[in-house]
Amino acid sequence: MIDEKFDAIVVGAGMAGNAAALTMAKNGMKVLQLERGEYSGSKNVQGAILYADMLEKLIPDFREDAPLERNLVEQRFWMMDDHSHTGLHYRSDDFNEERPNRYTIIRAQFDKWFSQKVREAGATVLCETTVTELVRDTSGGVVGVRTDRRDGEIHADVVVLAEGVNGLLGARAGLRERPNPAHVALAVKEMHFLPRETIEARFNLKGDEGAVIEAAGTITRGMTGMAFVYTNKECISLGIGCLIADFESAAETPYGLLERFKRHTSVAPLIEGSEVKEYSAHLIPEGGYKAIPQLYGKGWVVVGDAAQFNNAIHREGSNLAMTSGRIAAEAILKLRSQKRPMTAENLALYRRMLNESFVMKDLKKYKDMPALMHTQSQNFFLTYPQLFSKAMQGFLRIDGTPKVEKEKLALKSFVTARSRRGLFSDAFRFVRAWR
Amino acid sequence: MSNEPPVRVQDKLFYNRYRVDTGRAHIKVRPHGTPSPQLLSLLKACPARCYELNDQGQVEVTIDGCMECGTCRIICEENGDIEWSYPRGGYGVLFKFG
């Protein structure tokens, strides 16, 4: 193994690494994939929602044997204050289609399946192997890796860094900076097990139908963050995350937030009587377009979370990971077919191909959103949710107050809290960042 | 912190699977007299509560329950308060569900 040379080494076996390794291996490249976990998936954490379209591009018939949990027919968005939530729910029977668009998955199980497909495509997958260092040539180009398992070096024409949001290799080698605390969130999650009929009754589901809740508001105590409740077949994934920059200065703990979210009157009945079987924590890239690092260089490319590919507004990450891994592989395959070397100049093709995809187009669209959410977190995650709750309650509580007065009171509470100018400016900035 | 519900993180970590690499801590705190504000923030920010104050008011780390999220690395690696590496291959947290 030590003296063997590979066409490509993929570091990491998450969504991006698996997509890259699969695409290269099935097109005849000699691929080595290295994973530090006991098995592919053992270090990976996600909510998790799988977007079918991006997986179909890699494994068209994945529905035949992939471990899928529930087909999502309902999405709920909740704006929460301490005792209430204002919801926007969308449910449609159209989602009960022949080839459903979104599923919940459990990552450890899904990643094992995905890894099997990578092996079947012909890649060599080596687990329990931590890559400790990149091997560089005299010009700084990457020519291979060193691991903690084997003496010596393993060489390849190109190294695909799919090392995740907390990837050390690229940062240590100076290929990109360590993420800054305002550009990554810490999320904690628990797996709550319940009989499947209980889950189906509580969420109004039949068979393999699923529902997910994305929630924001005072549950994060004015910090930039979100919570979620996802239905799987026999368990509910429930979690909450906030920017690390906020945790650094706040008096809150991640598990304290999680506990308060679980005890919220809108959430507690959904998980009542459940058995918790895992508590996990993971980082989420939240910096968006402006936090994307250099994506390629001589002998290397970076894909997935390691490259900050996450659409925080739409809660999409794994599909950007899969797509960036696939596109990096396709760029490498194209260079090989043209017999062009893996220089920085040639690998710029990866960035150009990515620019043409939804990955870059979506991230670019929301390029100003992360900064707005972070600098205005008190307003967006504390003040407005409280005001909305008050306004909704005023609207619904029938107490003899004339409606004209109620509307005036509601409007006044917004103006008092944020001033006319503040309201206008918040709306203006939000719309501008959204466009 | 006033209305913080009581939470025992140790109980949560008990659900998890770990393979601890005894004697090879993957996180080290730099010896210090008085901890920096960043280092102190880890007492609350670490989701596994790996960081504790000792009797001398210094921050210590016990990595057995670490979920390898990297929060402490993001906050404290740059100023040199801590050193962060991955555990050896196959060691550390092993998520059953993820």
UniProtKB/TrEMBL annotation, chain A:
The keyword Acetylation does not apply. One of its GO terms (molecular function) is FAD binding. Pfam families: ETF-QO_FixC_C (PF26311), FAD_oxidored (PF12831). Residues 369-435 form the FixC-like C-terminal domain. Keywords: FAD, Flavoprotein, Oxidoreductase. InterPro entries: FAD/NAD-bd_sf, FixC-like, FixC-like_C. Its cofactor is FAD. It comes from the Bacteria. Part of an electron transfer system. Belongs to the ETF-QO/FixC family. This is Protein FixC. The lineage of its organism: Bacteria, Pseudomonadati, Pseudomonadota, Alphaproteobacteria, Hyphomicrobiales.
Automatic annotation (TrEMBL), chain B:
Residues 57-87 form the 4Fe-4S ferredoxin-type domain. SUPFAM superfamilies: 4Fe-4S ferredoxins. The keyword Metal-binding applies. It comes from the Bacteria. Pfam families: Fer4_ETF_QO. Keywords: Electron transport, Iron, Iron-sulfur, Metal-binding, Nitrogen fixation, Transport. PROSITE patterns: 4FE4S_FER_1, 4FE4S_FER_2. The keyword Metal-binding applies. GO terms for molecular function: iron ion binding; iron-sulfur cluster binding. PANTHER family: FERREDOXIN-LIKE, FERREDOXIN-LIKE PROTEIN YDIT. To ferredoxins from P.putida and C.tartarivorum, ferredoxin I from A.vinelandii, ferredoxin II from D.desulfuricans. Could be a 3Fe-4S cluster-containing protein. This is Ferredoxin-like protein. It comes from Bradyrhizobium centrolobii.
